[in-house]
Amino acid sequence: GQNIDQPTEMTATEGAIVQINCTYQTSGFNGLFWYQQHAGEAPTFLSYNVLDGLEEKGRFSSFLSRSKGYSYLLLKELQMKDSASYLCAVSSNDYKLSFGAGTTVTVRA
Amino acid sequence: TAGITQAPTSQILAAGRSMTLRCTQDMRHNAMYWYRQDLGLGLRLIHYSNTAGTTGKGEVPDGYSVSRANTDDFPLTLASAVPSQTSVYFCASSGTGEADTQYFGPGTRLTVL
């Protein structure tokens, strides 16, 4: 089966940096996705990693270590609009996604 | 561009009744998916379809059925609803490459009483 773990909640201050960790144990690996989901809305794509290393997209970066089964999403210069749930998802051998339960990030002024 | 639409937005359903949740995409994606999202459990795959005419079972398929008569539409049917099917249902679509992103519809909030 698939096992994807991420923290349930995190709180940070506006302007700060937050790192959301994700560990996974899956049958096969074809890449790791991060999605953002605001309350009451659909998940939206943030990033995709398939090779080890850091992918940077503006204020958001995502890191992957395949040997450790580990990824993190780094949110820099936090803004109030970044308050949302962040979902880690792994694409396995059959290319279907398995999702973690999500990390709710609350940004405080 | 509409992307993916779902209907209805929300529904209250009596236990034992049947219901079809509709999903339509205009991106010509081959693959489509149905997920349910429950507090603390994240998104769980119910059924999927890699191309028109084919469907497959996901992690939690019991009590649900799907069909894929064409590329655009992927309806989800609950034949006889039970309270444990109370959830938010998301439809998604993607290409079929390994790096293809899944795009999600706005969701249907279903309450079974």
The oligomeric state of the chains shown is: heterodimer
How does the overall form of chain A come out from the CA principal axes? globular
Describe the main β-sheet of chain A briefly.
6 strands, mixed
Low-confidence stretches of chain A: none
- Overall number of strands of chain A: 11
SSE string of chain B, helices as H and strands as E:
EEEEEEEEEEE
CA-atom Rg of chain B in angstroms: 13 Å
Mean pLDDT of chain A: 94
* Principal-axes shape call of chain B: globular
Secondary-structure element order of chain A, N to C: EEEEEEEEEEE
Q: What structural category characterises the helix and strand content of chain A?
A: mainly beta
Number of strands of chain B: 11
Average pLDDT confidence of chain B is 95
Radius of gyration of chain A: 13 Å
- Give the CA-CA distance, first to last residue of chain A: 41 Å
Assign a percent range to the helix content of chain B: under 10%
| Spatial separation of the terminal alpha carbons of chain B | 36 Å
| Strand content bin of chain B | over 45%
* Main sheet characteristics of chain B: 7 strands, mixed
Characterization of this structure:
The complex is a heterodimer of chains A (about 110) and B (about 110). By secondary structure, chain A is mainly beta. Chain A has strands spanning about 5, 10-15, 20-25, 30-35, 45-50, 55, 60-65, 70-75, 85-90, 95-100, 105-109. In chain A, strands 2, 4, 5, 9, 10 and 11 form a 6-stranded mixed β-sheet that branches. Chain A starts with a strand and ends with a strand. The model of chain A has no long low-confidence stretch (mean pLDDT about 95). In chain B, a hairpin with an 8-residue loop joins strand 9 (about 85-95) and strand 10 (about 105). Chain B contains no helices and 11 strands. In chain B, strands 2, 4, 5, 6, 9, 10 and 11 form a 7-stranded mixed β-sheet that branches. Chain B is mostly beta strands and about 110 residues long. Chain B is globular. Chain B has strands at about 5, 10-15, 20-25, 30-40, 40-50, 55, 65, 75-80, 85-95, 105, 110. The termini of chain B are far apart. The model of chain B has no long low-confidence stretch (mean pLDDT about 95). The chains are: A mainly beta (about 110), B mainly beta (about 110). The interface of A and B includes residues 31, 50, 91 and 99 of A.
